[in-house]
Design a protein that fits this description.
Elements (H helix, E strand, L loop, with lengths): L2 E4 L8 E4 L5 E5 L5 E9 L2 E4 L7 H11 L4 E2 L5 E2 L3 E4 L2 E4 L11 E2 L9 E8 L2 E10 L10 E9 L3 E10 L5 E3 L2 E2 L2 E2 L9 E4 L3 E6 L5 E8 L6 E2 L6 E6 L5 E7 L6 E7 L7 E5 L7 E6 L5 H4 L4 E3 L4 E10 L1
Length: 318
Amino acid sequence: MSSLFSRHLGPVERLVVAHDCGAELDVLIGRGGCLVGWRVVRNGKTVELLDGYSSAEDLHERYHSSHCGARLSPFPNRIKDGKWHWKGVNHSLLKNFPWEQGHAIHGMLFDLPWTKTDFTVTGDTAWLTLECAYDGKQPGFPFPYTAVTRYGLSSQGIEVQTLVRNTGHEALPFGEGWHPYFRVGGPIDQAELHMALPTLLVEVDDRSIPTRTMIPDDDFSKPVLIGARNLNTCWKFAGPAMRADVTLRNPTSGLTLRYWQTRGEGGYDYIQLYTPPARESLAIEPMTCPPDVLNNQLGLILLVPGAEHLLSWGATVE
C-alpha cells in the first residue's frame, strides 16, 4: 500500500510519497513545496530521475541560486529590474537574483512553507495535496491568492496538478511555471533531447529579457545530442495540439524520460530549458508565459475574484 512519511532535510520538513511499486517522490513542504526527488526501481536498482539537494548544507548553499524543483508563481523566470506597472500603479519586487542582472525571478512562493491538506490513493496513483495562502503583503505583488499543488505518483510516472484560486477582491494577473531538474543517468552532455511539436524561439536581449520577437526553430525537432550546449532558453510551442511532449534519453543505457505539459488557453504554452553548471541534469520548465510577463503581458492570465485556474504536467520513464 502506498504511504506518506516525513524525512527532514536539516530543519526543513520534507515529505516522501512512497508507492507500493518501490517508487518515491520527495517534496520540500517546508520550503516552497519544491519537488526534489523521484526514484524508481529498474532491474533491481534504484534510479534517481530528479536532481535535488544531498544535505541540509547543500540546500542552504544552492537553493537561492538554483530554486531547484520550485513552483514559479505568480510569475516564472525574470521580471526586468523587479519593476512593473499595473492599472496606474508602479510596483517594485525584491531583486532576489542580484547576480542575474538585477531582476526579480521565480515568483513569491519559493521560500514559503506549505501545508499538507490531503493524501489519498486512487487506483494506482498516490496523491499528495499541499496548499499555500499568499496574503498579498510581500513587496511588489499586492494580490492575495491561494496556490494548491497535487503531486501524483503511480507505477507509470508522476503528474503535478497546479491550481490558482483568486482570494482577493480584484482581478489577479499572473503566470505559472515549475523548475524541475531531470536526470537520466550520467552527464547531460551525453543525453539526447527531442521536442515533438514545432517551436518558436523566444529571442532575448543581453539581460535575458524578451525582445517580443519569436523565431521558428527546429534544433530539437529530431532527437539531438545535447553535447556542450549551454541552454538557458525559452520556446513557445506552435500548432493546435493540447499537449506538448519532450523526450530526454540516455542512448548508452536506453533510460528514457518522456515529459509532457498541457497547453491551450491559459496552459503551459512555453518551455524553458536550462543546463545547470554541474551538467548532471536538465531543467525542463513548463511555463504559461515567457520571461517578464508582468511587463510584456505575453501569455498573462487574468483571474477574476473567486475563480480558479488549473494546469498540469508530468513524466513517465522507460
